Amino acid sequence: MSLDNEKADVAMAEIRGEPKMSQQEAGAYALLSEDDAAFMNSFSEEQRKKLLRKIDWRLIPALGFLYLVSYLDRANIGNANIEGLSADIGLTGNQFNVALAIFFIPYILLEIPANMVLKWFKRPSLWIAIMTTTWGIVLLCTGFVQNYAGLLVCRVLLGVTEAGFFPGAILIVTNWYSWSEVGVRVALFYTSSALAGAFSGLFAYLIAKMDGVGGYEGWRWIFLLEGGVSTIIGLICPLIIIDTPALSKWLTEDEKRYLILRKEVEDGGREVQAKGHKITGKVLFATLTDWKIYLQAIIALSNTIPNYGFKFTMPQIMKNMGYTSANAQLLTIPPYVLGAISAYISARFADRYRWRMPFIVGPQFLVLIGFAITCAYSQDIKNRIGENYFAVSLACIGLYPIIPGANAWNSNNLAGPAKRAAGIGLLGTFASAGGLGGSFIYIETESPKYPTGFGMSLGMATAGIIAAFTLEFLLWRINKTNEKYTVEEVKMKYTDDELADMARAAWIDEKIEIELATMRYVAAKTTIPVPHVHAYSFTEGSPIQTAFIMMDYVQGKTLKDFGFKKGKKWRGSYSGPSVTTSKLHAQLADVYTQLRQLEFPQIGGLGLPIVDGKPSYDCDPDDIRVCHRPLSIEIMMQELEGMDPSARIKPRTTFSTARSFVNSLFWLAENEFDKSPDPGFDLCGGRNALYARHHFRRFVLDTWLDSSADKGPFILMHGDMLMLMSNLLFDDDLTLVGVLDWEWSFVIPAQMLVPPVWLSGGDTRWMLTGANLFYKEVRGLVAAVRDRERALQARPRLSQEWAKLEKWCHTAVVVALLSPDLTYDAYWDLVFYEAEEPKPEDPDFDFREFYMKAIHPRLTAFMEAPERKALIARKEEGQKRFFEDEKEYFENPNVRSILLPEEG
């Protein structure tokens, strides 16, 4: 659960429209020359993917390997210890623990200064090379230490030389990837820390066999060989680490140009962003006093304290089981491999389900169980080898998912880029400090029981579980409390700027993510021509401090350009299209047939997987899920008018049945009627509207809705294509070249996927009585759909479903469900006569007489309900207040002086 930016959906809905940037608007690449902008737009999605794969294979394995080496070099002291380190140099008491801990003091203190030094280097790989070479030399020197003091000096120097590696690696990654691509690459580093433990055991096993070679003990050879390898790697770093696109000979000139220009656009925006999002004293104070970060710190420490202690001591635990030093080294490998796999799987599931807590608490329970077993059986460890080894493996499986989960959860709950940056840094400091504590919990004199080590690990796992549950509960309670705020209370609690920022972050970002996810999914799963997305941003993190999508400009014509016109009178004469060809039907059939094949288990808007705390467009399309509410124009309009539709249809609300979704649509209609200020309200019209809404709902739920398809599967629809033909672009030969504007798309019951209402050129209200012309066009489209299904060798589902559309004027019912203002017309013009009270065929039919005899008694009885009387009275009172406010406004002298200036 996340704290929804202090529950923005209860804030006053001052929603500003976000620019969806394309060449059709004010210059997608305003920072570039016309030639460069044209080049960027011509760079295809396939070219971009190919380029990213090429970079991934050249850069990420190299940096991941270096991170593995750095982790291995700081932790191999644990492997060296079971080969005789402490005994040979005369360590006593807790001196070994001090040697472990002292590494972290310079490591923590020098990360920021090292990052500042890094800025002096034009080639970060040179800085990486210097650090890797120097820590390799330090490790070589560790192989020659003769006493406790020498070991301490080497450990301090190792902390100094490793401190700047990770910031340098991050800088190199940001030279190559856009901000939206960095997170998943950095996440791969986390698996290196687990694999380092596995390789450490393997290398130690092999190197320990050199005991006595050259007169050196086996533990010295661990430092000497691994230090020597690190030194050599450092010397060749400039050859294997790629700094910038401009310096890379393995890229084509077009690939270099694309990467350089993309970075130029992003960096130009980031200057603007930095000015508005600096870490000020106020932001720093807000970060330091944010209780959520301290609960996250407990969660992080529940990993780092047991993990570092375990990493340094696991070889000794294996040896205590009765194995030789060499075999003990080998036995450390499987637990770490399992830990790496666990970290990856947990992160994927957490991103997929967008819920961090279960994928933190679940692993912590494994840690708890693992250390509980070791506490129970460690004193008889040689006779309980199976139980203890299982416990060690279980603990590793549980430890490694915790830090990635905590980092993502922490990032999700820090509002604003400045506070987020400060909060992430603060959590990182706490996590690194866990290495200090972890160095002291496994005391050599307590071997093999290690009551302090196992007990502290048990305690930290328990504390982490409590902290995670506490954080989840407090966030849930805050969200629940905020849901109860009235608009006036919200205004008192927040400034206008804060309200606007929260509303935009919660609502606009939701809309942007749905459009991105839908376009990504449709582009990957179909051949529907969807514009390529070049860049995007959410409200926070945008170079221009707003949400946007930058996509291809699609050159084409709308159907209006071909003479396809829409009738102006809702019951006027038919004004059909001048171009209605079999080719047009074939183009539409292709789109709708492919959409019909996209099935989902829930109703709602599509969402992107979360990577590094943010939705990521560059994802596996199979990771895109239904996780948002079915955001619609109706919800947007109610938000804009202060009707608070989010009170019922909350963000991230999905529906598992068609009935529950349809009920939510009727709730929106009720919400609009109940809360909208209607100056034209009259008693008779209001009573008729209530009656129509009630009976239309009963008709839809009891008669119209297909109960056999209530639980799906459900279908993706293009939200605007139903009503607007301008979202389709064609070339001169009437071949579809682009389907635009997917922002209102969401997954619906299959029964509600209907042909576009503009197909016959008629207005929606006109279609209720002129539906025969509409369905004449539909028959031609159904034939084209049937042909397309055969060509795709698909089941003839859509053609069979659309063949039944004429019953109850099916499409008109769907349109009325999605547009509540049409409910009145849909009921009285369609449902009442078709389903309830057939209109007499008498040519002298008198509607007024019919109304008084057949309808008025029912309506009068219907309105006897007290709640309906109260609602009508409230609407009349609202109308009265509206006119009083209007009168007061226009009688204001200042207003009158503007509207009615005195003649000079």
From TrEMBL:
<feature type="transmembrane region" description="Helical">
    <location>
        <begin position="219"/>
        <end position="242"/>
    </location>
</feature>
<feature type="transmembrane region" description="Helical">
    <location>
        <begin position="359"/>
        <end position="377"/>
    </location>
</feature>
<feature type="transmembrane region" description="Helical">
    <location>
        <begin position="421"/>
        <end position="443"/>
    </location>
</feature>
<feature type="transmembrane region" description="Helical">
    <location>
        <begin position="389"/>
        <end position="409"/>
    </location>
</feature>
<keyword id="KW-1133">Transmembrane helix</keyword>
<dbReference type="Pfam" id="PF07690">
    <property type="entry name" value="MFS_1"/>
</dbReference>
<dbReference type="GO" id="GO:0022857">
    <property type="term" value="F:transmembrane transporter activity"/>
</dbReference>
<feature type="transmembrane region" description="Helical">
    <location>
        <begin position="186"/>
        <end position="207"/>
    </location>
</feature>
<dbReference type="InterPro" id="IPR036259">
    <property type="entry name" value="MFS_trans_sf"/>
</dbReference>
<feature type="transmembrane region" description="Helical">
    <location>
        <begin position="126"/>
        <end position="145"/>
    </location>
</feature>
<protein>
    <recommendedName>
        <fullName>Major facilitator superfamily (MFS) profile domain-containing protein</fullName>
    </recommendedName>
</protein>
<dbReference type="InterPro" id="IPR011009">
    <property type="entry name" value="Kinase-like_dom_sf"/>
</dbReference>
<feature type="transmembrane region" description="Helical">
    <location>
        <begin position="157"/>
        <end position="179"/>
    </location>
</feature>
<dbReference type="Pfam" id="PF01636">
    <property type="entry name" value="APH"/>
</dbReference>
<feature type="transmembrane region" description="Helical">
    <location>
        <begin position="328"/>
        <end position="347"/>
    </location>
</feature>
<dbReference type="InterPro" id="IPR002575">
    <property type="entry name" value="Aminoglycoside_PTrfase"/>
</dbReference>
<keyword id="KW-0325">Glycoprotein</keyword>
<keyword id="KW-0812">Transmembrane</keyword>
<feature type="transmembrane region" description="Helical">
    <location>
        <begin position="92"/>
        <end position="114"/>
    </location>
</feature>
<dbReference type="GO" id="GO:0016020">
    <property type="term" value="C:membrane"/>
</dbReference>
<dbReference type="InterPro" id="IPR020846">
    <property type="entry name" value="MFS_dom"/>
</dbReference>
<dbReference type="InterPro" id="IPR011701">
    <property type="entry name" value="MFS"/>
</dbReference>
<keyword id="KW-0813">Transport</keyword>
<keyword id="KW-0472">Membrane</keyword>
<feature type="transmembrane region" description="Helical">
    <location>
        <begin position="455"/>
        <end position="476"/>
    </location>
</feature>
<feature type="domain" description="Major facilitator superfamily (MFS) profile">
    <location>
        <begin position="59"/>
        <end position="482"/>
    </location>
</feature>
